Input
Amino acid sequence: MLHSLALIAGLAGAMAPPAPADTVEIAINAVTGLQFDRVRFQVPAGAPVRLVFRNTDPQDDMPHNLVITRPGARTQVAQAGMATPREQHHVPKVPEVLFATPLLGQGERFVLTFTAPTAPGAFPYVCTFPGHGFVMYGVMYVAMEMPALAQDENVPPTRRVAVAGPAGPPAWTTSRKNPGTSFGTTFPAVSRTFLPGSGPASIAVGFEDGESYGFDAGDSYLRYAWTGGFVDNVKHWGGNGNAYADVLGQVYYRSEIGFPLRVGTRQESDSVKFRGYRLVEGGLPEFHYAVDGADVRERVARRTGGPGLVRTFVIQTAEPIRFLTEPDAGVKFEASAGRWNGSVLELTPAQARQFTLTMVPTAAGGAR
Output
């Protein structure tokens, strides 16, 4: 059962009661580069566990927690944590969460005690602070043998590289989870990574014709698009999570205004929350987020007949929607619905229920 965060938040660093003689003692630290220093451990079924968690990250104002989930639920819990308020320590109240620490600031310590599950399995643990969970995770093996670390897909790729020797895993991979570059990658390719000029919760998506884009899941919008190749994650993997992937190609569109949607008459987007994404037909990711009471689903496909992208939006709202563009963004926007007021697309609630925005690269750039 999930520990009460209202209670444990006030106990960080407090003295814990003596542990039973058969208790398994585990120490895990949050370290630089959005990493746990220990990415896996093994316990017997039903054993009492005393886990000492410390935030030793040298970066100021970088809180971390440690949340243990049911098998296979790491990504779901990490995404739910992004939508959970900080006063709840970004720990979602869902049955997939088994045990959790509060958020700890730099230098803080917390002792988490629990009884291990009785069923064998691989139980992930993850930091659910927004954006961290895509790279900051590990696994608790209960009553089962651990695979060789170099082949353990339950730990971050950077940690598998670190112990695999100079040869390491292949630089290129066909895995949709962590594709390396466009060489040998199955398309559409989806890579959760660090992108330059984007947040730590970036998602790079690439198509077989060299069209690619970067979506910032932390801020819920398409940051930029490029053509010529996908991404090379080798620097990111080898940098313990604190290095950026290389964008392979030429960026032709870059958003300079940030989150582009406005609901009703609001001049700014007051509340934007990323809800996660799923793969739909053709392997395309569909991003789900909310803005000021409006529910938004967005999927991005390559444009047929030339370079560029087609963005399909499904927005549920009772208020008008405005989509802001930049006149000198490097593309021309073409909309299937609404009307253009300068560089702003205005849509009624009915028009916003489903519409497309086509981005066509131009030498001069600009929006209709």
Observations:
- The radius of gyration is 22 Å.
- Confidence is low (pLDDT under 50) at residues 1-16, 162-184, 364-368.
- The first strand starts at residue 24 and ends at 31.
- The chain has two domains: 5-163, 189-361.
